[in-house]
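Consider today's protein:

***
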Amino acid sequence: MSVSLPSAQTLAPEMLEQAIISLNEAQKQAVKHIDGAMLILAGAGSGKTKTITTRLAYLIDEVGIPPSATLTLTFTNKAAQEMRARALALLHNTYESPPLLCTFHRFGLIFLRLHIAKLGRKANFVVLDADDKRALLKSLCKIRPISQLDYYISNMKNAFLSPKEAQAYAHSEEYKLMNRIYGEYEDYLLNKNLLDFDDLLYLTYAILLQDEDIAMQMSEQYQYIMVDEYQDTNEIQYKILKRLCFSHKNLCVVGDDDQSIYGWRGADVNNILRFPNEFDEVKVVKLEENYRSSEQILNAANALISHNSKRLGKNLKSMKGAGADVRVIENENESTEAAFLAKDIATLFSEGVSPSEIAVLFRVNALSRSVEEGFNRAKIPYKLVGAVRFYERAEIKDLLCYLRLIVNPNDDYSFLRIINRPRRGIGKVTQLKLEQLAQDLDISCLSSIIQYPQQSQEALGEKAYNALLELAQNIERWRGYTDLADVIEDMQEHIVFTFSRLDEVDRKGNIEEFYGMFRDYAIVNPSNQVEDFLNDIALASPTDEPIGECVSCMSIHMAKGLEFKYVYVIGFEEGFFPLWNDEDEIQEERRLGYVAITRAKDFLTLCSAKSRLHRGKREWLEQSRFLRESGLLGVYDSTLPLREKFQGVQEEVIFSKGMKVQHKLFGIGVIESVKGKGSQCQLTINFAGLRRAILAPFVQKVLE
């Protein structure tokens, strides 16, 4: 396979040279550094993707490094695809093999296809997605929360601890139980030739660690390694990189310690903090010129992150210059906040702003509820990014299980999911009989139907047996196809779902979308097999899906790597943002604030509420310290008690008998009595004959 774009013949030889000329001095230093370790400390919006892709093209087209000797790793398919396209567009020459530019997990998948036999496993494995993993864990354990088991197993694998090794750390009964489930879970995966997402790294490192010849081979093959978003690497990714550098030190890592926000899922900010000491004579290049955001936005971001002590240190400078001031809006509660957002965004629409240029971000996912309700009332088009994804919808999961059985007919999990989808008249009792028969025969459910027809018919009854035999024969026929297009056509003909009238349009539309996408995949990848399609889906990220013409609503974690012209961040209150308070946690919370602020290109609005309905009760809240640390509300003094910190920020309204006030539901009324003070002040108000006891924060003084 040769590497060049279709228009490569028209590209001028000077294209790479022009790209280098357009770089700033720090970027040029990074691009032209060849041998030895390098840390590119790249601030938000500082052109890191341009720097990485230009450096890759420079190594190949200028220095003469074979593309196949390079390896560039990142964290999302979307980022990998963008970087690959940009790097290849700079290449003038044509090469026999392409540079490998992919996610860590994609690299693990490629590596394991070649080397998993070293662990005594087969190369035609299928990767479980997150939803299937949780369903499998639920079948293994009914007394522990599935999310807890999922988190425990993922942590053990990322720490490179097998069930046997993790047993030494299981001191309580709770952890002993979870570790026992971990062992049963691993046995199931091994017996069914399944991998989970974490195995793509866990098993890759296991092979690199135990086999020095393979580690040396990989290191000699990939002489120049680059890693994007290095601040997000975890322990096992760090260990894999060390093994890939077995024979050289040509490791270039690119990242921003100030944007390390995934500590909760194992990312270790210390990987980037200690990198300058990992190798001899590490070159450190700081990219501090920001091309995304205005001066006012960056001033707030720089001020906030300067309060962190665990950082390498840099200061972003705006190349766009001054812009609009950052707005800080305090609303009475979540309802008035949602109304403000809807009205403000509707005004932007009227001025011709595209919905895709607008984002609403939040630290806590629960805050999206009131925003969604407000947007629905105001008919604001929005998408909740990170909600139920296409491939996690029930009808699509069913189709994927059929495909898994084509790859691995011994996959009882997938078989039992679709045993009655579409309906075949298979009841729970019949299903249990089939499972027992398969267990007695020590084979899979599908194999027992095919290989032991008499026993199966006796156990299940003639009607159920015939229905499952037809299913088994279909799967066997699909397994014999060598062309994906044939699989698609036959499946679509023989798998016919029926839905209630309420769901029919949406679900049938989803199925048609799936088959259409499956066909497109077959056309673009004619030599690929069903397992390739399944594994591509398993490696997909929620942020890979297009957002379209609507306002994006998402958590700050989901927003990392994205940018919008208009950004609203809600929930700037103590207990919501920051959510956690100890020293390490507050530093990561501050980095989250830095990420949120630097998503904005031109207009940034930070919102807080005086109260929110949370977990069934209304909570009275203080504005976040981050607003003060950002230089937007005055000086934050960490030595003062919490309530004292916020006194005097806004003038307190003194309510008195006879004063006119307005309530958002009851309209204008007159205060008849006042009891208490502050946020707990209770007012008795006469709304045109209707008397109500209302807390003071829920009304506003009517100006005469």
User: Anything to note?
Assistant: Confidence is low (pLDDT under 50) at residues 1-12, 635-651.
